[in-house]
Design a protein that fits this description.
The chain is built from six helices and eight strands. By secondary structure, the chain is α+β, with helices and mostly antiparallel strands. It has a single domain, classed as Chemotaxis protein chec (3-Layer(aba) Sandwich). Strand 7 and strand 8 form a beta hairpin.
Length: 141
């Protein structure tokens, strides 16, 4: 289960250094991950077994969701974590999410989200200013 936020900098080659606390859950033994686009403008990083479950669910969507299959499956990149815990994020995926250097890695349960730091700050501020969704109005904090 992934949780928490980490401020990170991608190196000049576009590699992300995965925080130590996430490495085991991401598959430090095999190091196999999958990165794909998220409709909110970030990237999703999955350990391979979790990706395979997600991929099956997406592949089973009806034809009305064909474009979403393309977005999730067609842009998915299989990558491997190196011995130093780094992952290469492809230029295409970085460009789509607007990630240049400074980023935020968020634990989202079964996967991680990688955001451009500035974009995330703006979207989080907008969300805090917006009305709370109905589904959360009766939620006890």
């Amino acid at each position: 289960m992934f949780q928490g936020a980490s401020s990170l900098s991608l190196d000049a080659k576009g590699r992300l250094s995965v925080p130590t606390r996430h490495r085991d859950a991401l598959g430090a033994d095999t190091g196999q991950l999958t990165i794909t686009k998220h409709p909110h403008g970030c990237l999703m990083i999955f350990p391979r077994p979790e990706w395979e479950r997600f991929r099956e669910r997406i592949a089973a969507l009806p034809m009305q969701a064909q474009w979403w299959r393309r977005i999730f499956l067609g842009n998915a990149m299989d990558v491997e974590m190196d011995g130093s815990g780094r992952v290469l994020v492809s230029p295409e995926l970085r460009a789509d999410a607007g990630i240049t250097r400074e980023s935020i890695l968020l634990g989202m349960g079964s996967y991680l989200e990688l955001w451009d730091a500035e974009t995330y700050a703006v979207k989080e501020a907008e969300a805090k200013q917006a009305e709370m969704p109905d589904v959360l109005k009766d939620f006890s904090f």
